[in-house]
Amino acid sequence: MAEGTAQADHLAGYADILLDVCATGRRLTRAELDARRAQGMRAAEAGLALRGLVRAHLAGAREVHPRLPAGAAGPLLAALEQAVDAFAEGYERSQHQAVRQEEAARREFIDDLLYGRSDLGRLAERAVRFGLRLSQAHAVAVAQGREPYGDGYPVARGIEETVLARFGNRQILLTTKDGRLVCVAPGEQPDVLDYFARQAYAATDGGRVAIGRSHQGPGGVVHSYEEALGALELADRMGLEEPVLHAADLLVYPVLTRDRQAMADLVESVLGPLRAARGGAQPLVDTLTAYFDSGCVATEAARRLSLSVRALTYRLERIHGLTGADPADPRHRYTLQTAVIGARLLDWPGGTGS
User: Fold this and answer.
1) Which has the least CB within 10 A, 65, 73, 124, 186?
2) Which residues of 257-269 are buried (b: 16+ CB within 10 A; e: fewer)?
3) CATH number belonging to the domain at 259-345, selected among 1.10.10.2840, 1.10.3430.10, 1.10.20.10, 3.40.1360.10
């Protein structure tokens, strides 16, 4: 009954328009069409179903039909078509505006969530609307590919559909930010982020995914997101090849660079003498990198560098001679390896090291 009353409110004046149009043979005026569009917009804002409203328009035309003179069926159908078309246009316009407003609100929330720019209490209240409970711990996964991605892109939409189809309503937020794909999930559900990482890696044609650690509270999402971004940046600087990175596995690197000047001093002190080598320091730094990355196995390091074992051995001896530190000696290995890591983090000798 209430729905029928609401529908009748949005058909006010409709029957009179049909009767007048059929009596005169005219078309609906601009003012009448605008009125029907306005009624359609109000009906959409009231949450009424369009199908029921169209049915009410048809029923209104049937009620008018017996009151018309013979031969007025044609004008009635034409007037009905105009009225329903204008009403539906207003209804759809209102819905489109609502969708745009919802998208804008969602984007604003995501920006505030990932950058921590809003009051945390207010942010937690807004998060409920988007399916998150920020009082719990959350972790964030970030995927980047060969090209930037935005909301609505086939890749982003496909991953979202796949993840939601697998896990349903688990308080998961999938979005994009700065051309990257982002997934926020409760911290006690690492399987969600692992699955997202696999899907994103496959969908981005060999992209890379980083997963931040789980942190508590509204600020925890920001912390985890920043960890994931830091892991992606670190992977680029260090030349890490793993497709999926976990920030928890890379904590040693921020520790090493926390005192950047001390690290720069170590690099210069230990590796600085390599500048005297023919060809400069870089080939020998690359040699140490391959040697340590291969577990100090000379044959594997030589393979990675496309060198003979004899040539690799010569380079290691040259490093020993210049620096006084023997890469094969466990007593010297830690200092050399730490300096090599620092060189990669500081882009030494290509960078300034400061």
Assistant:
1) 73
2) beeeeebbebbbe
3) 1.10.10.2840
